[in-house]
Amino acid sequence: MLTQFIIAIVALGLGSGAGYAIRKVQAKKSGDHAEARAERMLADAKAKQQEVLQETKTHEQQALLQAKEKAMKIIEEAKQEEQSRRRDLQDQQRRLEKRESMFDQKLLEFEDKKTGLEEKTKEIENIKDKIRQIKEEQIAKLQEVAKMNREEAEQKLLKEVERDAQDALMSRLRKLEQETEEELEVKSRKILSLALTRYASSVCTDTTTTSVELPNDEMKGRVIGKEGRNIKAIETLTGTEIIVDDTPNMITVSGFSPIRRQVAKRALDELIKDGRIHPARIEDAITNAKKTIAKDLRKAGEDALYKLGIPVSSIDPKLISILGRMRYRTSYGQNALQHSIEVGTISGMIAEELGADVFICKKGGLFHDIGKAVDHDMQGAHPEIGYNIMKKFGFPEEICYQSIAHHEDRPRTIEGAIVKAADAISGARPGARKQSLEQFIQRMEDLERTAGSFDGVEKVYAIQAGREVRVFVQPEKIDDLTAYRLAKDVANKIEAELSYPGEVKVTIIRETRVIEYAK
């Protein structure tokens, strides 16, 4: 067993050594084969590299040749272009040289002409000097013969020409004025006739009364009250004066404010209708009257805006109430609100015919007398008051100006002239305004006295109900030119000193009569 075991071990060792030897031999053979393949691959790679390098060199050589060919071509083209430019430059240079020679020639000619002109100028100056000397000698001889200097002769000549041409100029001036007036009168009559025929309203407007009717004379005592307490309460609360006279069934409310008079009148109407008249009831009646009138004023203002097509929302409610106050305001017996509506309507119609701004004329015409609604409560004339009121409520300047324009002699805008004309039309229509006989006579006398206060006036007549004043002047004191100035002076004095509705036409009449008898 031991022997076998040893033999087995030895055999195992021999087998292992033989296997290792065999394996080593095989590994060496395999390594020789790998190195050979590697060498072959390296050799192939070097061969390919040589081929690539060879091909690359060939391509580079070809590219270099192509580049050289292109460079040569570009150089050749550049040379040709340079030669062409040189030829152009040479041509231009030849043309410039030719022009310079022409300019030199013309310059020489110009110098020759300049020299000739200078010589002629000197000759002309010499001739002028000779003429001046001759003229001075002639003037001296003329002055010696006429025994007057040049200034005196000029003044005399101008006076002669002015005297000779004055009659011709005045005749021409009168003819032109007459033609212009006739043409304008025809056009104005046409426009006014169209406007008036389109607008027809009552010429007799209602006036606000301040008289209160009583059912019987016994009511006068109740209105007066015990020891006059009722009438004192009414006067204190309304700011008016209650006049109780012998007029049957009638008492009168007096006061400078038309609104206060109307409040007192409505309160009295309510008290008389109710029958209970005492201080507490009087206060209630006056409070109710004020509320009612406030509503009436607002409604009257809105109705006026509706009639003229002006949006109510565009006007401040306070201004609408102020406009409504004109319902209780009169001017020469004409209702101020109705007058304003007429002016706005007629202004809009005339503006349509003339191509003016219709909106400005309508709105300006409606509010042109807005100052009259508060002129009893504020200082100043109603045109300025109205202008300030419209400015306060944000009206544009061209509308605010209408309050002043209708009292100006020459309004500066066409809309102002239209409103002024419409105001005169509304106030001048027959029956629109009324005056007492005493006031009428007094106004006529004032017109004649004012116009007759100027020097050179012989006679003065106020005609057409004070719409025209005819002034007869002394022809030996007033010439034609002075007559124009006199007409303006008379008109300005009437405007400054007198109050009158509408316009007053001033006519100056200068008449010369020469009488001779044949015997």
TrEMBL record:
Family (UniProt): Belongs to the RNase Y family.
Keywords: Coiled coil, Endonuclease, Hydrolase, Nuclease, RNA-binding
NCBIfam families for the chain: HDIG, RNase_Y
UniProt xrefs under Pfam families: HD, KH_1, RNase_Y_N
GO MF term list: hydrolase activity; RNA binding; RNA endonuclease activity
Function: Endoribonuclease that initiates mRNA decay.
Keyword Protease belongs to the record: no
Coiled-coil ranges from the UniProt annotation: 35-190
Protein name: Ribonuclease Y
Gene Ontology cellular component terms for the protein in this record: plasma membrane
HAMAP family in alphabetical order: RNase_Y
Species of origin: Candidatus Uhrbacteria bacterium CG10_big_fil_rev_8_21_14_0_10_48_16
Name of the gene: rny
Enzyme Commission code(s) on record: 3.1.-.-
Domain HD, first and last residues per copy: 336-428
GO biological process terms held by the UniProt record: mRNA catabolic process
Stored Gene3D superfamilies: Hypothetical protein af1432, K Homology domain, type 1
